[in-house]
Amino acid sequence: MSACIEWTGSKNNSGYGTVSRGGQSGLMAHRDAYEAAHGYIPDGMVVMHSCDNPPCVNIAHLRLGTRSENQRDSVMKGRMFRKLTEDQVRSIKYHETGTNKSVGQRYGVSDVSISKIRNGKVWRHV
Fold first, then answer.
1. Which position among 18, 34, 71, 102 has the lowest Cβ density within 10 Å, counted as fewest Cβ atoms?
2. What is the pLDDT of residues 60-99, one digit of tens each?
3. What backbone phi and psi angles, to 5 degrees, belong to 33?
4. Angstrom distance (rounded) from CA 21 to CA 42
């Protein structure tokens, strides 16, 4: 894979580059780069990073997908719950007792994350 081209301008709290265009501010730089190269982004589609690097605007690293595809990609690559390992997830799913809140506090993640793991909404492959 080619090297990332990182946005050097302003960024949001999640590390994504932001641009201003046509009187609008806070537009996502990677979406702007994708549109400049490929045209309009259809409604309901997102621009996904194959490099998993939020400030990257390298066109070769960007592709269209649905929100569901982007979330699935995030979970499969461990970005969504990056603090947890597969062994920890196995322990949460099969061995941990206690409330979602207490288990989340032990692992340093939210009770919502624990609930999603226990209910099979994320980390299905584990």
1. 102
2. 999 999 988 988 787 666 565 557 888 999 999 999 999 9
3. -65, -40
4. 19
